[in-house]
């Protein structure tokens, strides 16, 4: 059975295309302030003529955006196996907690000593994240995972600078690392140097040994890496980097494979960030408010943004007396609404629940791998996958069926496609991350669908998707000749 | 896959052609096929002084963004402006109209650079 939406599919024009000339959407009262003619107030070149702003009524606008929102695909609507993104279900209890009056209307300028409940929650969240990751201190300030990553690298820079070690200007980044790592390194003026992985898809100690010298500030590791593989020599990697004076940045993007089972701090990480929207079921922002807390070992704690939360005489207080702090990276104390949701998730599951979450996520990925491995090329098939499984289109290439064809076919069958053509180190990649959310029926339905699609010919697949409001778009044309403004 | 006998090749799939002290550089047929439809080519400024092995620009395809490397030191003397309007030339004509930059080099630097001939490059691609 297909889970695809059908029935009332609206053909939605742009607001500009709705008939609006000569209509008035609002009836505004006469103003008591006299209207002025703009001429003479501004030089002629700063005056513009009539602007074609649509003139629509409230229900027209509401319907337009409501209809568009119904085109969205969300994890509340169906399976969303977007690899490396951990699109897990966000329990509605999180929303109830964040809406509690005392949290929702807390004011950051409340008098000294107020907001104790909220501060206690944040303090507990810091301690829980420290315990989960094996780090000594946690900062909740960063407003997104990328922000946390940047802050982490700022701390690495602050550490070396504070020690007077100015020659460390480079960062090693394995080619299987998370895609944002090189940009975070560049923004703090470190040169991102690619560390090629070995034939088994893991960091090669001999290559690391050659490249790790006293110009290297540290290494940025994603573990499990973006091929879904656990870096089995992670301890040796961290020891080698530490022995040569570097620090280990640990990308928390794939924490959903580790929580309750293994701790980056124990592996040798000096700093890591958490993606609360991945691991701890806060909404994937799409540019909205997010949270990317970071955890550090004690050697980096003096540089954390201020204030930090401390407990004194039974009260949680903010400590601004941090002489080595890099300063502030975010107003007040981060995006609290998101942090409340993360706290709720952690407290709902508890220690054993979090461990079970991880085990289910890994089991689900390996179940999909077992269902799909006879039908698709699975790179590094002999190694166990962690929370996601990597396939390629190699077996389908003879029939001219590509990863892109399969992705479009999945849309036609009502599934969000997996991450495609990433990681870059694997040609024609499909990175599938089911998360712990899904049951066996959904996983089977997805596997059956993917196997069925792989048996179709290129012509059939090239016509997909047909049942969506917009069919197959010309992605090449859109990228080569983008039209960025409404053309009338 | 087309490989031409009169060109030299790099491990990163650039081709180079030396005429006098002028090198023309582009990406190979193998590379354009792997990248898929090229949608944007970021070119260097004319006059840029390059160190050997330096990145000179980026090629963006629907799948990925890749850096273009120049294995020889020199000065950029001409860039293929046509690629700004028609990046697909890299796909349709990688060895002719899809050339990327021309660089003035020292001939001895070119001779010292670690480049492959057509046969070696073909083996290199087969191993990938």
TrEMBL record, chain A:
* GO terms, biological process: glycine decarboxylation via glycine cleavage system
Enzyme Commission number: 1.4.4.2
- Class of this enzyme: oxidoreductase
* One MF annotation (Gene Ontology) recorded for this entry: pyridoxal phosphate binding
The record lists the catalysed reaction(s) as: N(6)-[(R)-lipoyl]-L-lysyl-[glycine-cleavage complex H protein] + glycine + H(+) = N(6)-[(R)-S(8)-aminomethyldihydrolipoyl]-L-lysyl-[glycine-cleavage complex H protein] + CO2
What residue stretches are annotated with the Glycine cleavage system P-protein N-terminal domain? 56-301
Q: Which GO terms describe its cellular component?
A: cytosol; glycine cleavage complex
What InterPro entries does this protein map onto?
A: GDC-P_C (IPR049316), GDC-P_N (IPR049315), GDC_P (IPR020581), PyrdxlP-dep_Trfase (IPR015424), PyrdxlP-dep_Trfase_major (IPR015421), PyrdxlP-dep_Trfase_small (IPR015422)
Q: Does the keyword DNA repair apply?
A: no
- Name the cofactor(s) required for activity, per the record: pyridoxal 5'-phosphate
Q: Which domain of life is it from?
A: Bacteria
Q: Which UniProt keywords apply?
A: Oxidoreductase, Pyridoxal phosphate
Question: Locate the Glycine dehydrogenase C-terminal domain: which residues?
Answer: 358-453
Question: What is the role of the protein in this entry?
Answer: The glycine cleavage system catalyzes the degradation of glycine. The P protein binds the alpha-amino group of glycine through its pyridoxal phosphate cofactor; CO(2) is released and the remaining methylamine moiety is then transferred to the lipoamide cofactor of the H protein.
**This protein's name:** glycine dehydrogenase (aminomethyl-transferring)
* Protein source organism: Candidatus Lambdaproteobacteria bacterium RIFOXYD2_FULL_56_26
TrEMBL record, chain B:
Q: Which Gene3D superfamilies match?
A: 2.40.50.100
Q: What are the entry keywords? A: Lipoyl
Entries under SUPFAM superfamilies matching the protein: Single hybrid motif
Q: Which GO terms describe its biological process?
A: glycine decarboxylation via glycine cleavage system; protein lipoylation
Cofactors that this protein relies on: (R)-lipoate
State any GO CC term: glycine cleavage complex
Please give the superkingdom of this protein's source. Bacteria
Query: The Lipoyl-binding domain covers which part of the protein?
Result: 22-104
Q: Which CDD domains match?
A: GCS_H
Question: Among its keywords, does the record have Disulfide bond?
Answer: no
UniProt function note: The glycine cleavage system catalyzes the degradation of glycine. The H protein shuttles the methylamine group of glycine from the P protein to the T protein.
Subunit info here reads: The glycine cleavage system is composed of four proteins: P, T, L and H.
Name the UniProt record assigns to this protein: Glycine cleavage system H protein
């Amino acid at each position: 059975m297909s889970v695809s939406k059908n029935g009332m599919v609206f053909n939605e024009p742009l607001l500009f295309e709705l008939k609006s000339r000569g209509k008035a959407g609002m009836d505004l009262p006469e103003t008591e302030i006299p209207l002025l003619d703009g001429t003479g107030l501004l030089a002629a070149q700063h005056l513009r003529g009539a602007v074609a702003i649509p003139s629509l009524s409230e229900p027209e606008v509401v319907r337009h955006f409501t209809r568009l929102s119904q085109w969205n695909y969300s994890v509340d609507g169906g399976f969303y196996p977007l690899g490396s993104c951990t699109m897990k279900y966000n329990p509605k209890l999180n929303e109830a907690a964040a809406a509690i009056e005392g949290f929702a209307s807390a004011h950051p300028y409340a008098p000294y000593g107020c907001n104790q409940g909220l501060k206690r929650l944040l303090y507990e969240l810091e301690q829980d994240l420290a315990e989960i990751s094996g780090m000594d201190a946690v900062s909740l300030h960063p407003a997104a995972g990328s922000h946390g990553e940047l802050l982490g690298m700022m701390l690495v820079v602050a550490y070396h600078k504070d020690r007077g070690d100015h020659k460390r200007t480079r960062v090693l980044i394995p080619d299987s690392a998370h895609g944002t790592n090189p940009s975070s390194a560049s923004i703090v003026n470190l040169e991102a140097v690619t560390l090629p992985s070995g034939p088994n898809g893991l960091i090669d100690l001999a290559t690391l040994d050659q490249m790790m010298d006293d110009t290297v500030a540290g290494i940025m590791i994603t573990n499990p890496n973006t091929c879904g593989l656990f870096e089995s020599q992670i301890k040796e990697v961290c020891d080698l980097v530490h022995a040569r004076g570097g620090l280990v940045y640990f990308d928390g993007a794939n924490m959903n494979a580790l929580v309750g089972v293994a701790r980056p701090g124990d592996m040798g990480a000096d700093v890591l960030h958490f993606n609360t929207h991945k691991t701890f079921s806060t909404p994937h922002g799409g540019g909205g408010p997010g949270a990317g807390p970071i955890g550090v070992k004690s050697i980096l704690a003096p540089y954390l943004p201020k204030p930090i939360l401390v407990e004194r005489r039974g009260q949680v207080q903010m400590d601004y007396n941090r002489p080595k702090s890099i300063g502030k990276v975010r107003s007040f104390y981060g995006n609290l609404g998101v942090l409340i949701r993360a706290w709720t998730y952690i407290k709902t599951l508890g220690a054993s629940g979090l461990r079970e979450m991880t085990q289910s996520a890994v089991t689900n990925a390996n179940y999909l791998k077992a269902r799909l491995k006879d039908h698709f090329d699975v790179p590094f098939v002999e190694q166990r996958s962690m929370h996601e499984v990597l396939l390629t289109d190699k077996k389908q290439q003879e029939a001219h069926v590509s990863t892109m064809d399969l992705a479009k076919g999945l849309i036609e069958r009502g599934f969000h496609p997996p991450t495609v053509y990433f990681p870059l180190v694997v040609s024609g990649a499909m990175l599938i991350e089911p998360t712990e959310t899904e049951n066996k029926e959904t996983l089977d339905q997805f596997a059956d669908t993917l196997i069925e699609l792989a048996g179709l010919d290129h012509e059939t697949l090239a016509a997909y998707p047909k049942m969506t409001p917009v069919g197959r778009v010309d992605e090449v044309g859109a990228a080569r000749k983008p039209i960025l403004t409404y053309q009338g | 896959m087309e490989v031409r006998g009169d060109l030299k090749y790099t491990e990163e799939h650039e081709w180079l052609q030396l005429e006098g002290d002028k090198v023309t550089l582009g990406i190979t047929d193998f590379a354009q096929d792997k990248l898929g439809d090229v949608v944007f080519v970021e070119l260097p400024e004319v006059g840029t002084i390059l160190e050997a092995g330096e990145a000179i620009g980026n090629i963006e395809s629907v799948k990925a963004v890749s850096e273009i490397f120049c294995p020889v030191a020199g000065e950029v003397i001409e860039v293929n402006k046509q690629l700004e309007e028609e990046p697909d030339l890299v796909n349709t004509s990688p060895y002719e109209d899809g050339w990327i930059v021309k660089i003035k080099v020292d001939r001895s630097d070119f001779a010292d650079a670690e480049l492959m001939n057509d046969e070696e490059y073909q083996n290199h691609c087969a191993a990938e």
